[in-house]
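This part of the workshop introduces the protein records we will be handling. Backbone structure tokens are a discrete shorthand for how the chain folds in space. Once this layout is familiar, the rest of the handout is easier to follow. The record below serves as our worked example for the rest of this section.
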Amino acid sequence: MLVNHGRTSRLALVALAALAPRLAAQRPDPLAHVVAEAISRNLGLEGERLAVRRAGAEVREARGAYLPSLNLESRYSQLGSVTNLGDLINPAYAVLNQLTGTNLFPTNLDITLPYRHESRLRLVQPIVNEQVRAGIAVARARYDGQQLQLAAAARQLAADAQVAYLQVASARRVEQIYDGTLSVVRENERVAERLVNAGRATPEALFRARAEAADVEQQLAEARGQRLAAERAFNR
């Protein structure tokens, strides 16, 4: 049985290439917690979220123009030249009172039609309103744009947080290196001093060791300052 090793190798490479993105996606992101905390705590991003919610409220308000509205209308009218029914009824009641010898029938009625006070409920339901439709479209576009702006701000914040975290880690590592180097050069200075005292080395060796120690101390101080600045930027 013959086996084509070249073809088998190519198939294996293709399979690995196809699985590589999936394996990378399954690999946990070591900076995911940094990004999550930055997104949840950043005040600038919270302002963008408030803008999105405000734009959403504007969309709901614009859509509300298509809902029916119920209004109570009430008015009091001063009427003139209106027939008063009391002018017709009061004389008849007066005659009845005379005939019966009583005061059972009122003779001071004041009745006008229509009534002076009028109240009514008004229900309005828009059917077709291009102005309302345009307002909804504008509000929706503003809402979509605000969402895109929030997403862009979140992506930028995630990138800034990751870069700041890496800068802090790098600055701390540099500080550790200089701190370890300082221990070495101080030991060299101590050895050089003993050799000079023992007459086995010239004073130049001691001066050189002290200069190296001073140089490393200066570099360590600068590295510590850069680390503090990186931490402040990361916290911000």
Remarks:
- Strands lie at 69-76, 117-124.
- Helices lie at 5-26, 32-41, 43-63, 86-100, 130-197, 203-235.
- The longest strand covers residues 69-76.
